[in-house]
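re: that chain from earlier
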Amino acid sequence: MSEWKGALGLDLGTTRIKLAGLDGHGALGAVRSLAAPEPAGSGAIREVDPERYRALADELLAPAPQGVALGIASQRSSFVLWERASGRPVTPLVSWQDRRAAAWCESHRESARLAREITGLVLSPHYAGPKLATMLADEPDLARRMRSGEVAFGTLETYLLWHWTQGASHATDLSMAARTMLADPVSATWADDLLELFGVPREALPAIEPTSGRAVPLPGLPGGRRLSASLADQAAGALATLGETRGAALVNLGTGVFVLRPTGSERRLAAGYLSGPLAGDGARALFALEGTVNGGGTTADRFASGPTALPANDPAPEAFCLPDENGVGAPHWRALQPFALSSAAQRLAPSEQRRVVLEGLLFRVSEILADLGDDFGAPARVRVTGGLAREPFVAEGLAACLARPIELVEESESTLLGAARLAAGLDPFARLSSRAVEPPAHGAWLRAKYPRWRAWLGQLLSASPSAG
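^ sequence. v structure.
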């Protein structure tokens, strides 16, 4: 690992925990990874053992070079409560995939406007605020312990940093705070109106610190390491891939699928879409619009393993899929609508069903890009990254759906790179190299199928209530 000279990047993902370092040219060196603990639970519950997650992160960091800065990119919205005195978790790590707060959101739909105006988010059970409201209503003593300062709240990276600083740092950054649905991203503060709405005691919350330039010693890790940067995973990938470019869109195809359009220092809202910060230093924040698909590579892999090729003709013209597994994301927002295959798709072999799931993911991305283009002009460039983007069907299929070239980013670990560059004090906006993927002639059937998928989806969602 002698090539790790400048800084380390740590990606706290849902399915993998990854670590890499910068070489002397500011590019990623070797990438090491471990499988993250799988969320457990039945029904709407999705929970992870936070101590197991911490042990795996410690294991990954143990052999890494000493005395270098660390940048962390974390999965968003997952959180845990713990005792300040002992560090013992009081709750599991509640995954962003957990939907226990669906009923709470439905019964508080009159609060959706307030939440939207302050946070730029849609009232949804994916966020910590509604989940905490549900949990604290069931456990009044937990609320008391939070008010007394006995119990602390934090997203995943906050919990790890609390341990790695041996309790000296209870902090997060703006990009992570904004995804709890408890913060005002414009003022970079916890919002009193939202704390009251969700019943969350301010005493339990972390400080909101700058995204980079923090220089926090980590005595709980060997080797004199220090935290220099910490931010949300999608933010790290967007900064590394797009920077502040307002005329481009990033499609990140991983465990979930995300479409981001930077809007610079101006927060802009678009109906059905999220708006939030990519980074903040207290005086200035960079914002982006975001469309989410609550499904991705693991959704397709449940049917068969890839890769999947793009066929010359549609093998199943009436086979359709809604690929969102944890409630439907932008722009529909149906918290209780499950993953769905059309009846024709249900009769297919697993490998063919996998292809139909990938079709659904591409169609969801296509509708998001079309919506954001209507309000803000079609993006001059569409850049694509993430592990799923390496599949032949996905890259070529998206270009076919859009009937325009896309740019496939050659660096598959853009999230790690963004975190490590920020930690090293390098320009996080240095745009990554990419290769153009032209719309293939044999994929024209996908674009022709898209309107039929839209009609099928409309019928499917017509009986499902929105999230507000």
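The radius of gyration is 21 Å.
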